[in-house]
Amino acid sequence: MTRTAIEPSTPTLAALLAAARRRLAAALRADVNRTPELDSELLLAEVLGQSRAYLAAHPEARPGADALRRFQELIERRAAGEPVAYLLGRKGFWTFELEVSPAVLVPRPETELLIERALALRPDVHGRLADLGTGSGAIAIALALERPGWAVVASDLSAEALALARRNAERLVPGRIELRPGRWCAALPAGAFDLLVSNPPYIGAADPALGTLSFEPALALVSGPDGLGALREIIAAAPAHLAPGGWLLLEHGAQQGAAVADELAARGFVTVRTHRDLAGRERMTEGQWPAIR
């Protein structure tokens, strides 16, 4: 493949962005979610310490040598597939911005459906919620912000992820989230919860989709041959930690809705429903633990 170099001989912002867009468009052709123009602008704005609006208003400006070199390095890393969020060290989610690193998944817009459903199912001022496998803390923080009266617990098996989630929580919702190390429900404190939510790993070990996710942590992506291992584990353990009438909400792959719904029903959950994201893909399934057994 022919590489389009960023020519240092003509380093106006307009020229740099045009060359970077061509480079990323060619290198990431197989990525259906590629956004070469946006990526180029975000990375150039980052190295300049400016906004994207500045780039549009000053196309004739020329960066210094250090900024130019840094921008070229970031474009090559992005061309190799590294997510922009890791290159910037942050990612917007819900109504706030999170610190992110290769220790956690990059938060994605489809996960916001999980938050919307949790808020709809539990409109009460008070409640008790746990986020299993919190990663960056995205779900727990969003719900703590939206429901100031809720007691929120978040767990993760990864010490690196938990440390990052703690930094995010201390910055955005100080003193609001109890962070606990451990695997899924095993990390939870005693007592019953009104809501358990999780975006667990749900990709099969041989799934070709992993090829485009090589920079993200396998621990947070892969769960057994069919991708359902963690989901089954959570479903099996959740009832022991739910209050009567409490809800379990699970994000999953676009082809896993029926399988997750079957697992929930077989475990004894009722009012089992699968919901679609804005793209029309089955993205999460919820089930209620009966109030009377």
Compact summary:
By secondary structure, the chain is of the alpha/beta class. It is built from ten helices and nine strands. α7 links the parallel β3 (127-132) and β4 (150-156).
List the helices and strands and how they pair.
Elements: H1 13-27, H2 36-48, H3 52-57, H4 65-79, H5 84-88, E1 90-93, E2 96-99, H6 112-121, E3 127-132, H7 138-146, E4 150-156, H8 159-172, E5 177-181, E6 193-198, H9 229-237, E7 242-251, H10 257-267, E8 270-276, E9 282-288
Parallel strand pairs: 3-4, 3-6, 4-5, 6-7
Antiparallel strand pairs: 1-2, 7-9, 8-9
Helix pairs in contact: 1-2, 1-4, 2-4, 6-7, 9-10
Protein model, in words:
The protein is α/β, with parallel strands linked by helices and 293 residues long. It has two domains: 13-81, Orthogonal Bundle (Helicase, Ruva Protein, domain 3); 104-288, Vaccinia Virus protein VP39 (Rossmann fold, 3-Layer(aba) Sandwich). The chain is built from ten helices and nine strands. It has helices at 13-27, 36-48, 52-57, 65-79, 84-88, 112-121, 138-146, 159-172, 229-237, 257-267, and strands at 90-93, 96-99, 127-132, 150-156, 177-181, 193-198, 242-251, 270-276, 282-288. The strands form two sheets. A seven-stranded mixed beta sheet has the order 5-4-3-6-7-9-8, sandwiched between helices. Strands 1-2 form a two-stranded antiparallel sheet. Strand 3, helix 7 and strand 4 form a beta-alpha-beta unit. Helix 1 (13-27) packs across helix 2 (36-48). The longest helix is centred in the N-terminal third of the chain and has 15 residues, at 13-27. It is elongated, with a radius of gyration of 21 Å. 40% of the residues are buried.
